Amino acid sequence: MKLFWNASYYGIFWIWNLTFLMLVYLGILPYVGVPLLQATLRGDIPTEFFFTLVTLIAIPTISSIIGAWRFIKQPLQLIRLFYGVEAPLLVLCLLRLFVIRELTSASGQILITAGICIAAFTGELFWGYASRRKSGLQWVQMLAHTLMLIFGIYAGAMLLFYALPLAVFLLQQFIKFAWVQPLWSILYHSAFVGGLFLILIWLVLVGFSATLFVAMPSALTAIYVYSGAKILRYFASEHGNKKTFAGASAVVVAFAVTFVSLQQQPQVLAFSLLANAPKNDSDRQMLVAKSEQIRTGLVNAYLSSYRYLSSKQENNHISAMYHQVLGLDKSAADGVQATYNFLMSPFLYNGSDKDTVKAEKLYADFFDTPLQKAEKTAVSHAVQSTFNEQEVKAGLLNINEKKVLLVSQEVTVKEHNDWADVELYEVYKNQTREVQEVFYSFSLPESAVITGLWLGDTNKLDQRFPFVVSSRGAAQKVYNSQVRRSRPIDPALLEQVGPRHYRLRAFPIPPKNVQQIVGQPPLPTEMHLWLTYKVLGQDLGWEMPDLGERRNIFWTNQTKRIRNGKEIGLKADAWLEKFIPASGKIQPVLHEVNLEEGYKILAKPLSRQDYTLPKDQRVAVVLDTSRSMGQHIKELVQTLSWLKKHGFADNDLTNNDADLYLSVSPGAAPKRLDDLQQFQPEKVAFYGTIQPQEMLTQFNNLRGDTVYDVVLLLSDEGSYELSKNNKTVPDMPVPLWMVHLGGLPGAYNDGIIKLLQDSGGGVGVDISEVLQRIATKSVLSGSVVSVVNGYAWYLQTLDTAIATSNPQDDLLPLAARQLILGLSKKIKLDNLKSLDAIHAIAKKYKIVSPYSSMLVLVNDEQRQLLKEAEAQSDRFDRKVENGKENLSKPINPLKVSVPEASGGWLLGVSAIALFIFVKRRR
Hints:
This protein is of the alpha/beta class. The chain has 27 helices and 27 strands.
């Protein structure tokens, strides 16, 4: 009998190690290891996955060496090595590599416990119980082996849930004898002895498979419990039962308390706190004080499919197995499932699959920013913890990512007295093996105008792809269709998304290490982009684009920077300098431009004496009290102090006066304060999220019959990504100006852009400058379109225009920009006829406007798509680019949609494989 067991131990160890070695070296290493290493080097996935793979490969290799070197004559030690060290480590590595994604505290506890137990068992296997002289080590062994007792029982119980139905299933299939026919076919189609030999091998493999998958729960539990009990007995014999009991009890209590406490998942509290809208400021301040707990909970819910194997609600595979295989009724099977869920709770999410959408909305409503944008690091790490592919389109997760290198950047300025033509030329080189999109959000001086955009595979100007000016909605639709196609072809899109705001996107940047094909034209390895604009000079020179946000693109000290043919140095974190100095002092002069549409544009320089401040003006100040504004209380106090200093808070209507309107997020009531002196910003509960359209609607509802000369909306950068595609905006009979404390936003939705232009308003970052522009414009001629960048722009019809000499055709694009701005205040742009008329101006003069975008097309297919899009009635309907990446959820391995019927073929699969093998040999 002893000989039989020794032979079994040898067989289990060496057959399975041979199988493991073949699996890791012939399967996992070439098909998983190489791609995993490449992804790790690219930074696509965390390095821990690569180390897990290395461990997985090393385990059977080292185990085989140890088995052949140290335990070759000790079969019992071999089987202990296999079931106590090798098999658990392999299972852990395989689970970590292919099943378990991002670790949580609860799942981390189980894996760390497993690692401690395996390490402790390995030490006992090789060196036994520590000697009396090493008392400290004895205590460590006692504590670790107590933990081993717990883990052995826990792991055995978990595996038993699978081993019991598997054993019954195998027995059922064996009794059905469906496997006899394939085996008989092997004997029939082969020499009897050869077939019999193959059948014996098959029986051995099936038997040893049963020893691993069916016997492992019992073996693992028995080995760990025996080892743990043995060490505790040794420790008690030397240190006494009291110390042993105290130490063991401490481990049990610590493990139990930790296990139970870590099951309290944070999303439960977060959802509970946000279940009802706060009723007053104290409730809001209480929730704000618990922001970190709410943030942790909402992020955990949003990433639940990456951090947990399944939710408790969806995990039904144990119930299905016990109901189908063992024939338990539904209630009994569900009871087994509930027990399994309790033991498996570190890996199960306490909620539903709908919590992802719920958490994302609650996060935006509470923190006033998109979750993906604010929690980019956490979301990116979770996504990288799987083999999930992100969308190619540059989204919020790509902000400041370093995927496309700016190889060189050249700026050329052609001066024309007080204005200049500026060309920006950049070369991009992809640093990844996937095509990428480059995204820039930037601003220009309000009077500047963009006049060109080109793409190229090389620096040859005659081979670059030119732009077309298209209606904004059609251009966006065509560009997005090209980005999402399986084989993308170069497009580029440049849009105006605010009074001075622009968005540039170029795609696809060719992947790294493009394989050239012999005999074929060379494939592009980089992208070249040219952008041109006209700008009026200022005291500091010629203003450059001011970067707001970038996605995927990055630059280093090695990026070549050239200005007017000369290479310069620039700070590593700067895209462009703020100004390029002029060659001499800029002297502003009067400009006159006659347009074929029957209009004359005059640009008149203004001196400091021409500017003035408001007099006898009544102003409505609409204050944004959303969560993000709480970070700008200092700027708000300074702004209100300026208003008080200049007579807006003295309640004297014969002087300037301001009324304050507090806009609020849902759940609270907006307020009107006629006395600015009574307002205390530090006592306001800045809470939730609210968009400009909603703020202005609340203002209209509160103002009643009060007439104002101007409306100032005080906000911060806001969250453009949270805005709606709704073009409906409140009626605003007086100019609306948005004053952004802390900096301009990256973009506005088209409804707000229309409202700003229709009302004759604008945007700024300083209230004194804004009110100065408003007042100066009001005292000048009624034909003034705008006062900006040191000039007053006048719009006149040619038959009434003041006669001047020297009209300048070179300034036609700058004049056309002002014409579009002026006409947008005179005609209602709520119908296609009016929008087409405005668009025709931009198209004629080849400029970008809030209604017209530049699109680079490279083939007839794209041109046909644009033609069809421009013929649609929604050609001006541009959607909000929220930048959200639609991440595909990982597969739920514990969910069974429809239990599959057992057809009696599992045992026969290997027999059929042997049959096919014999047939092919013959």
